[in-house]
Write a structure and sequence with these properties.
Strands 4, 5, 6, 7, 8, 9 and 10 form a seven-stranded mixed β-sheet that branches. Strands 1-2-3 form a three-stranded antiparallel β-sheet, with no helix packed on it. The chain contains five helices and ten strands; from the N terminus they run βββββαββαβββααα. Strand 4 (about 85-90) and strand 5 form a beta hairpin. It has two domains: about 30-80, no CATH class; about 85-239, Nucleoside Triphosphate Pyrophosphohydrolase (Alpha-Beta Complex). The chain is of the alpha+beta class and about 240 residues long. It is about 20% helix and about 30% strand. It has helices spanning about 105-110, 130-145, 200-210, 215-225, 230-239; strands spanning about 45-55, 55-65, 70-80, 85-90, 95-105, 115-120, 120-125, 150-155, 165-175, 195-200. Helix 3 (about 200-210) crosses helix 4 (about 215-225).
């Protein structure tokens, strides 16, 4: 081969699951999520890399960001995309109780929780359903409750520094007549959920003494203290 001769590689780069070909969950184009965002004129995405595409997706995104002082900087962020979710607090004003769950949460256990058994409001991912449909499903699976009237409270980003998930918050009344199933979660999905009926005052005490440490649950209980049980107590005093 002379110095003037050149070689051209005809090798095709290997297909990347989740990018060029379907991954284990049938997804492609995972590296394009966020690439065309243009809602903020001070942010321009330049590159999206998929660093892990297990059950959920971890991405590293590079973007140009114009600071408040006008300086243009290049930054990177890793984001964990597990889809959006919904949660619900079921309450009985007459009995002054709420319906919660207790289940093992390994991420809490590995980060200093004594046994990983967290007390929570029922919750789950949307799995392509509308939020109100998804939360009715979760209430039935986890608590055994057929939800009637449903009140949407708000939508919150729970960990916006790294997790993309937006959670839809709901509350709904329940009575013993609404307990139409055993609850406990879906065994085939590894769920082993205990259903708890807790006096509302005790639930607030459990926040104060550290027995309830789940963020979404604390938020809904505090909201209920302001908007549900306080009103019920006021009516009771007037009676």
């Amino acid at each position: 081969m002379t110095s003037a001769e050149t070689t051209t590689s005809t090798e095709t780069p290997p297909a990347r699951p989740g990018v060029d070909v379907p991954d284990g969950r049938g997804r492609t184009g995972l590296d394009r999520v966020g690439a065309d965002l243009d809602r903020n004129p001070d942010v321009a995405v330049t590159r999206v890399e998929v660093t892990s595409d297990g059950w959920h997706v971890l991405r590293r995104t590079t973007f140009d960001y114009r600071r408040g002082d006008g300086e243009l900087t290049t930054q990177q962020r890793e984001t964990y995309d597990r889809g959006n979710g919904a949660t619900i607090l079921l309450y009985d004003l007459a009995a002054q109780t709420v319906l919660l769950t207790r289940q093992f949460r390994f991420p809490a256990y590995v980060n200093d929780h004594p046994d990983g058994m967290l007390i929570e409001t029922a919750a789950g991912l949307l799995d392509d359903d509308e939020p109100d449909v998804a939360i009715r499903r979760e209430a039935s699976e986890e608590l055994g409750v057929t939800v009637g009237i449903l009140q949407h409270v708000f939508d919150l980003y729970m960990s916006p520094g790294s997790v993309t998930e937006r959670v839809h918050f709901y509350v709904a009344p329940y009575t013993s007549a609404d307990l139409t199933g055993p609850g406990g979660g879906v065994v085939d999905e590894g769920e082993d959920i205990e259903v708890l009926t807790i006096p509302f005052a005790e639930a607030l005490t459990m926040i104060a003494d550290g027995r309830i440490v789940d963020g979404k649950t604390v938020i809904l209980l505090q909201w209920a203290a302001l908007h549900l049980f306080a009103s019920a107590a006021s009516l009771s005093r007037r009676d």
